[in-house]
Amino acid sequence: MNPQRSVFQRTRKEKHHVSAPQTINDSDFEAAVGTSQPVLVDFWAEWCGPCHMVAPILEEIAAENDSITVAKLNIDENPQAPARHDVMSIPTMIVFQDGVEKKRIVGARPKAALLQELAEFL
User: Fold this and answer.
1) Coil, helix or strand for 41?
2) b/e for 75-100, b at 16 or more Cβ within 10 A?
3) Which residue among 25, 58, 84, 102 has the highest number of C-beta atoms inside a 10 angstrom radius?
4) Strand (E) or helix (H) holding 55
5) Are 59 and 20 in contact (CB under 8 A)?
6) Catalytic: 48?
7) According to the model, what pLDDT value does residue 49 have?
8) Is 51 a catalytic residue?
9) Could you tell me the residue ranges of all domains in the chain?
10) Predicted model pTM
11) Annotated active-site residue in 24, 33, 39, 51
């Protein structure tokens, strides 16, 4: 990719990158969601079937979109952030921007439905 070209000048092919969801925890949560770029946090647990269903979809969204960061937080290992953000069921996906909640999606969704929910951030 030519570093001289701006993000807006890049072709669709160049925009496609391989990015995986970041794993975050209670100690780095505020720093992770405090960025100006939207961050979609997936609150999940190992025992949660619907969480496993949505995980590959979130991996695809992370790989296909430069405009949003996808992060995962295991609620069993990190109970403080879910409690602070009133996460009552999982999967819960919250979009943060500048540390502020902008959108909340509760429950597993097919990719098309998630993309529709996230359209304003993509």
Assistant:
1) strand
2) beebeebbeebebeebbbbbbbbeee
3) 58
4) helix 49-64
5) yes
6) yes
7) 96
8) yes
9) 18-121
10) 0.83
11) 51
Domain 18-121 superfamily per CATH = Glutaredoxin (3.40.30.10)
Which residue among 24, 32, 40, 48 is the active-site one?
48
Q: How many CB atoms lie within 10 A of CB 26?
A: 15
Q: Does the structure show a pLDDT above 80 at 5? A: no
Q: What are all long-range contacts of 98-106, with beta carbons under 8 Å and residues at least 24 apart? A: 98/34, 98/35, 98/36, 99/30, 99/33, 99/34, 102/38
Sign of the Cα pseudo-torsion (90, 86, 77, 22, in order)? positive
Quote the CA–CA distance of 93 and 73 in Å, as a whole number.
Answer: 10
Mean pLDDT, the chain, whole residue set:
88
